[in-house]
């Protein structure tokens, strides 16, 4: 009887610690979200947002809100139909399409930066 009670108690302790870890993580994530949201109107640098429409972890509307509220004039958003949370690792063709979009965007940003540098 004692080993069963002991192992159940240990399992209970593990579950409680796991819950506290997840709760702490969720509180920190929510605090970060609030801080980011409070600063969105000051974001003026270029940024790319890609999101999977079927993402069950982060609602795609969060990416749309980020895009809509940011002050940057150079911002791009793509929401991939049928894709999930880790879009860059998603099933094909979405994974390779998202990776290629990121590379193309980065190259475009560098070309813009270099051409602006030459104009100075």
Automatic annotation (TrEMBL):
Q: Which Gene3D superfamilies match?
A: alpha/beta hydrolase (3.40.50.1820)
Q: Which residues form the Serine aminopeptidase S33 domain?
A: 23-91
Report the leader peptide range: none
List the protein's name.
Monoglyceride lipase
């Amino acid at each position: 009887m004692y080993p069963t009670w002991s192992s159940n108690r240990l399992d209970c302790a593990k579950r409680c610690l796991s819950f506290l870890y997840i709760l702490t993580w969720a509180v920190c994530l929510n605090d970060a979200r609030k801080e980011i949201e409070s600063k969105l109107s000051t974001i003026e640098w270029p940024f790319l947002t890609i999101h999977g429409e079927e993402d069950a972890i982060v609602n795609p509307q969060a990416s749309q809100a980020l895009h809509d509220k940011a002050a940057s004039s150079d911002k791009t958003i793509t929401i991939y139909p049928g894709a999930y949370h880790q879009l860059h690792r998603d099933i094909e063709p979405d994974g390779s399409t998202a990776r290629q979009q990121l590379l193309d965007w980065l190259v475009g940003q560098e070309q813009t930066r270099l051409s602006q540098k030459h104009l100075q």
